[in-house]
Amino acid sequence: AQKITQTQPGMFVQEKEAVTLDCTYDTSDPSYGLFWYKQPSSGEMIFLIYQGSYDQQNATEGRYSLNFQKARKSANLVISASQLGDSAMYFCAMRDYGGSQGNLIFGKGTKLSVKP
Amino acid sequence: DTAVSQTPKYLVTQMGNDKSIKCEQNLGHDTMYWYKQDSKKFLKIMFSYNNKELIINETVPNRFSPKSPDKAHLNLHINSLELGDSAVYFCASSQDNTVDANYGYTFGSGTRLTVV
Fold first, then answer.
1. Which has the closest alpha carbon to A48: A33, A67, A63?
2. Cβ–Cβ of B98/A102 closer than 8 Å?
3. Extended strands (E) in chain B
4. Of A50, A91, A97, which is closest to B104 when you measure between CB atoms?
């Protein structure tokens, strides 16, 4: 069974607007971590934000926030005030101690394009 | 200083050849990983390794072998290269194999392997 699902292969957003990238996950382990990475066209993987399964509040890092809904097993990334430089692939990922043996497992990614 | 460095950045080689990709991390991390990113941008773990245990993704052909001369290095050797091996290979490291954000992954910049 797929552990991380990103249902949006591609998204468009107007510059300066907010955008939400969807991510749902599947795990039976009570302890897990959720991550978002950005991969620009240059190819490097850039860590954006983290949410722990026991964290009571949604994580925020600058213009990035993670909308964590534990009961729904969703961890959507919200980017506020989009900039042209936000155009990239975005990957949701999870670590748990179940079948992934603690390794970081990725979703298939969402390609975000910011329009001027 | 680059935290996780991979060499070479680009590698073009013929089918049937044997090649290696080197990875070094200067973060003092305990665990290192190799990921393969295919043409559809899907990131899949190939190996994770610390000084105690090598965990191999069972779908990885045995033509791929990780070699770790010390804690700071995890090289990837590929024998008898095939066209399907063409991909971007990422090395990564983490402090330990836990789900805590403090032990998130740091990625290298990737090696684009093209088999012709």
1. A63
2. yes
3. 4-7, 10-13, 19-25, 31-37, 43-49, 54-56, 64-67, 75-78, 87-94, 106-107, 111-115
4. A50
**Which residue type occupies A59?**
A
B89-100: per-residue pLDDT in tens?
999 998 875 555
pLDDT band at B58 (very low <50, low <70, confident <90, very high): confident
Q: Record the tokens describing residue B59, joined without a space.
A: 């779908």
Q: By CB neighbour count within 10 A (0-12 exposed, 13-18 middle, 19+ buried), where does B4 fall?
A: buried
Instruction: Please name the residue that has the structure tokens 């032990």.
Output: B103
Note whether A12 and A79 are within 8 A (CB).
no
| pLDDT tens-place values along chain A, 116 residues long | 558 999 999 999 999 999 999 999 998 888 888 999 999 999 999 999 999 998 889 999 999 999 999 999 999 999 999 999 999 999 999 987 655 566 888 999 999 999 99
* Residue A27 CB-density burial (10 A; 0-12 exposed, 13-18 middle, 19+ buried): buried
Chain A residue set in contact with B, beta carbons under 8 Å: 31-33, 35, 37, 39, 43-45, 47, 50, 52-53, 89, 91, 95-97, 100-106, 108-109
CB pair distance less than 8 Å for A108 and B42: yes
